[in-house]
Amino acid sequence: MLKIGQFNRLHVVEIFPFGYELLAYGGSSEQLVMLKDTSHVYTMGQELDVFVYTHADGSFLGAIDAPKVMLHQFAPLVVVGASDHGCFFDWGIKPDLYAPEGQLHTNLDIGTRYVVYALQDRIGKLVATTKIERFLHEHSQELSPNQAVSLLIYAQTPLGYKAIVNGEFQGLLFNSDLITSVKMGDYLEGFVKSVREDGKLDLALQVQTPQARLNLSEQILEDLIAHDGMSTVTDKSTPDEIFARFKVSKAAYKKAIGNMYKQKKIRIEKNCLYLNQDTV
């Protein structure tokens, strides 16, 4: 039985000038796979690990190299074509991966990257969808604060960016926790900032431990001392200005100077921070 959208162990049963015909052991003639590959030389009976997918006419095609997305996976792909009934994504093999109109959440622009999910349609053909949230778990009880996670950015909201977490959960990266510019389809390494009572995930790009906050406070003190007790980097500074100086997000910086103010180590004025003399 062929596994569509996955790698299969097949063997060569026919050799043509333009490629090879492959079959799984015990497979029927209805499951022949065409591998259009003239860059490699294979022999009759040779076993190959081949990615199997379907042509528009229902026949089976094979590829030696892995595509950019496989069945039940998420990936950022670029739109390379459109029709009246859907659009086509570049997924690294030919023909391009089709997304029917009903699987698109909005009108897509050619040349733009979107995060898609690969699934099989009702007749078993591999297709793409941009309606991905139904394939993500909204809640997670298995992740904990400060746990390292992999992120794939898939949408922007007024609050920040939605991300796929570890390939299965959805989470939110707030604008205030950004330390660099972010684009749709970016892969990032991040951390769980908090797990809400309902199990939803808030994310960060830096670890949020007490030790990290203490280290940042020490950095700010050293910077103030080095600049004669005064700094123009305040809670009103841009995220880029803060990151350029301290390599942290604006949210982390605001929390640090807020704690330092409460401890009477600094005073905060309109455009500057000042080191209190008894702190030195």
TrEMBL record:
<feature type="domain" description="Conserved virulence factor B-like winged helix">
    <location>
        <begin position="218"/>
        <end position="275"/>
    </location>
</feature>
<protein>
    <recommendedName>
        <fullName>GntR family transcriptional regulator</fullName>
    </recommendedName>
</protein>
<dbReference type="Pfam" id="PF17783">
    <property type="entry name" value="WHD_CvfB"/>
</dbReference>
<dbReference type="InterPro" id="IPR014464">
    <property type="entry name" value="CvfB_fam"/>
</dbReference>
<dbReference type="InterPro" id="IPR039566">
    <property type="entry name" value="CvfB_S1_st"/>
</dbReference>
<feature type="domain" description="Conserved virulence factor B first S1">
    <location>
        <begin position="4"/>
        <end position="59"/>
    </location>
</feature>
<dbReference type="InterPro" id="IPR036388">
    <property type="entry name" value="WH-like_DNA-bd_sf"/>
</dbReference>
<dbReference type="Pfam" id="PF13509">
    <property type="entry name" value="S1_2"/>
</dbReference>
<dbReference type="InterPro" id="IPR040764">
    <property type="entry name" value="CvfB_WH"/>
</dbReference>
<comment type="similarity">
    <text>Belongs to the CvfB family.</text>
</comment>
